[in-house]
Design a protein that fits this description.
Layout (H helix, E strand, L loop, with lengths): L1 H17 L4 E4 L1 H6 L2 H38 L5 H26 L4 H28 L3 E4 L16 H8 L4
Parallel strand pairs: 1-2
Helix pairs in contact: 3-4, 3-5, 5-6
Length: 171
Protein backbone atom coordinates (compact mmCIF):
# COMPACT_ATOMS: atom_id res chain seq x y z
CA UNK A 1 0.00 0.00 0.00
CA UNK A 2 2.84 2.40 0.88
CA UNK A 3 4.52 1.64 -2.43
CA UNK A 4 1.35 2.47 -4.35
CA UNK A 5 0.92 5.78 -2.52
CA UNK A 6 4.62 6.61 -3.00
CA UNK A 7 4.42 5.68 -6.68
CA UNK A 8 1.26 7.76 -7.10
CA UNK A 9 2.88 10.74 -5.31
CA UNK A 10 5.99 10.54 -7.49
CA UNK A 11 3.82 10.28 -10.60
CA UNK A 12 1.93 13.46 -9.66
CA UNK A 13 5.17 15.30 -8.81
CA UNK A 14 6.80 14.42 -12.13
CA UNK A 15 3.69 15.13 -14.17
CA UNK A 16 3.23 18.60 -12.67
CA UNK A 17 6.92 19.34 -13.16
CA UNK A 18 6.47 18.56 -16.85
CA UNK A 19 3.77 21.19 -17.09
CA UNK A 20 5.79 23.88 -15.34
CA UNK A 21 5.71 27.12 -17.23
CA UNK A 22 8.90 28.93 -18.10
CA UNK A 23 9.17 32.67 -17.60
CA UNK A 24 11.69 35.24 -18.74
CA UNK A 25 12.27 38.94 -18.26
CA UNK A 26 13.54 41.65 -20.52
CA UNK A 27 14.50 45.20 -19.64
CA UNK A 28 13.18 47.29 -22.51
CA UNK A 29 14.96 50.44 -21.28
CA UNK A 30 18.29 48.59 -21.24
CA UNK A 31 17.69 47.14 -24.70
CA UNK A 32 16.67 50.48 -26.20
CA UNK A 33 19.67 52.27 -24.69
CA UNK A 34 21.94 49.80 -26.47
CA UNK A 35 20.38 50.38 -29.90
CA UNK A 36 22.00 53.34 -31.62
CA UNK A 37 19.15 53.84 -34.11
CA UNK A 38 16.74 54.32 -31.20
CA UNK A 39 18.94 57.05 -29.73
CA UNK A 40 19.12 58.74 -33.15
CA UNK A 41 15.35 58.54 -33.53
CA UNK A 42 14.85 60.06 -30.08
CA UNK A 43 17.21 62.91 -30.91
CA UNK A 44 15.30 63.63 -34.14
CA UNK A 45 12.00 63.60 -32.26
CA UNK A 46 13.41 65.93 -29.62
CA UNK A 47 14.59 68.44 -32.25
CA UNK A 48 11.20 68.40 -34.00
CA UNK A 49 9.34 68.69 -30.72
CA UNK A 50 11.37 71.71 -29.64
CA UNK A 51 10.88 73.42 -33.00
CA UNK A 52 7.12 72.83 -32.92
CA UNK A 53 6.91 73.87 -29.26
CA UNK A 54 8.69 77.14 -30.10
CA UNK A 55 6.19 77.75 -32.90
CA UNK A 56 3.26 77.15 -30.54
CA UNK A 57 4.77 79.40 -27.86
CA UNK A 58 5.29 82.17 -30.41
CA UNK A 59 1.63 81.95 -31.43
CA UNK A 60 0.57 82.00 -27.75
CA UNK A 61 2.71 85.09 -27.20
CA UNK A 62 0.96 86.77 -30.13
CA UNK A 63 -2.41 86.04 -28.51
CA UNK A 64 -1.21 87.47 -25.21
CA UNK A 65 0.08 90.60 -26.96
CA UNK A 66 -3.25 91.03 -28.77
CA UNK A 67 -5.09 90.70 -25.45
CA UNK A 68 -2.81 93.17 -23.65
CA UNK A 69 -3.19 95.68 -26.47
CA UNK A 70 -6.94 95.19 -26.38
CA UNK A 71 -7.06 95.77 -22.62
CA UNK A 72 -4.98 98.92 -22.81
CA UNK A 73 -7.03 100.38 -25.71
CA UNK A 74 -10.43 99.08 -24.59
CA UNK A 75 -11.46 102.44 -23.13
CA UNK A 76 -10.97 104.20 -26.46
CA UNK A 77 -12.77 101.62 -28.64
CA UNK A 78 -16.37 101.64 -29.74
CA UNK A 79 -18.61 98.64 -29.06
CA UNK A 80 -18.20 97.45 -32.66
CA UNK A 81 -14.39 97.71 -32.48
CA UNK A 82 -14.37 95.86 -29.14
CA UNK A 83 -16.39 93.04 -30.66
CA UNK A 84 -14.05 92.79 -33.66
CA UNK A 85 -10.95 92.71 -31.47
CA UNK A 86 -12.48 90.10 -29.14
CA UNK A 87 -13.40 87.94 -32.10
CA UNK A 88 -9.87 88.30 -33.50
CA UNK A 89 -8.39 87.24 -30.15
CA UNK A 90 -10.75 84.26 -29.86
CA UNK A 91 -9.95 83.24 -33.45
CA UNK A 92 -6.22 83.44 -32.77
CA UNK A 93 -6.65 81.34 -29.60
CA UNK A 94 -8.51 78.72 -31.63
CA UNK A 95 -5.71 78.64 -34.18
CA UNK A 96 -3.17 78.13 -31.39
CA UNK A 97 -5.20 75.22 -30.02
CA UNK A 98 -5.45 73.77 -33.53
CA UNK A 99 -1.69 74.12 -33.95
CA UNK A 100 -1.11 72.28 -30.65
CA UNK A 101 -3.45 69.51 -31.73
CA UNK A 102 -1.79 69.31 -35.15
CA UNK A 103 1.67 68.83 -33.67
CA UNK A 104 1.12 67.19 -30.29
CA UNK A 105 -2.35 65.63 -30.40
CA UNK A 106 -3.12 61.90 -30.48
CA UNK A 107 -3.06 61.93 -34.28
CA UNK A 108 -0.52 64.75 -34.48
CA UNK A 109 2.73 65.07 -36.34
CA UNK A 110 4.86 64.06 -33.34
CA UNK A 111 2.84 60.86 -32.85
CA UNK A 112 3.13 60.00 -36.55
CA UNK A 113 6.86 60.70 -36.63
CA UNK A 114 7.44 58.67 -33.46
CA UNK A 115 5.53 55.78 -34.95
CA UNK A 116 7.54 55.99 -38.18
CA UNK A 117 10.89 56.10 -36.36
CA UNK A 118 10.40 53.99 -33.23
CA UNK A 119 7.80 51.37 -34.20
CA UNK A 120 10.16 49.45 -36.54
CA UNK A 121 12.69 49.17 -33.70
CA UNK A 122 10.00 47.96 -31.29
CA UNK A 123 8.78 45.45 -33.88
CA UNK A 124 12.33 44.15 -34.29
CA UNK A 125 12.64 43.71 -30.53
CA UNK A 126 9.27 41.95 -30.41
CA UNK A 127 10.30 39.55 -33.19
CA UNK A 128 13.61 38.77 -31.46
CA UNK A 129 11.81 38.10 -28.16
CA UNK A 130 9.28 35.91 -29.96
CA UNK A 131 12.01 33.85 -31.65
CA UNK A 132 13.93 33.35 -28.41
CA UNK A 133 10.70 32.41 -26.61
CA UNK A 134 9.82 29.84 -29.26
CA UNK A 135 13.30 28.29 -29.16
CA UNK A 136 13.60 28.19 -25.37
CA UNK A 137 9.94 27.45 -24.63
CA UNK A 138 9.02 30.55 -22.65
CA UNK A 139 5.30 30.94 -22.12
CA UNK A 140 5.59 34.44 -20.69
CA UNK A 141 8.10 37.25 -21.12
CA UNK A 142 7.67 40.31 -18.91
CA UNK A 143 9.19 43.74 -19.37
CA UNK A 144 10.99 44.59 -16.15
CA UNK A 145 10.98 48.31 -17.00
CA UNK A 146 7.20 48.59 -17.25
CA UNK A 147 6.09 45.86 -14.86
CA UNK A 148 5.87 47.85 -11.65
CA UNK A 149 4.40 44.89 -9.81
CA UNK A 150 7.60 42.83 -10.19
CA UNK A 151 9.30 43.21 -6.83
CA UNK A 152 12.20 40.83 -7.41
CA UNK A 153 13.31 38.77 -10.35
CA UNK A 154 16.36 36.60 -10.63
CA UNK A 155 18.93 37.90 -13.12
CA UNK A 156 19.13 34.34 -14.45
CA UNK A 157 15.77 34.74 -16.22
CA UNK A 158 16.66 38.12 -17.79
CA UNK A 159 17.13 37.59 -21.54
CA UNK A 160 17.81 41.22 -22.47
CA UNK A 161 21.35 40.47 -23.67
CA UNK A 162 20.09 37.53 -25.73
CA UNK A 163 17.57 39.83 -27.41
CA UNK A 164 20.31 42.35 -28.21
CA UNK A 165 22.52 39.59 -29.59
CA UNK A 166 19.65 38.25 -31.71
CA UNK A 167 19.21 41.75 -33.15
CA UNK A 168 22.93 42.08 -33.86
CA UNK A 169 23.80 44.38 -30.96
CA UNK A 170 26.11 42.10 -28.97
CA UNK A 171 27.02 43.08 -25.46
Amino acid sequence: MKKIILFFGLFIAFSTAGYAQKFALIDMDYILKNISSYETANEQLEVMSKRWQAEVEKAQQEVQNLYKTYQSEQVFLSAEQKTKREEAIVEKEKSVQELKRKYFGPEGELFKKREALVKPIQDEIYNAVKEISNVKGYQLVLDRASASSVIFASPRIDISNEVLAKMGYSK
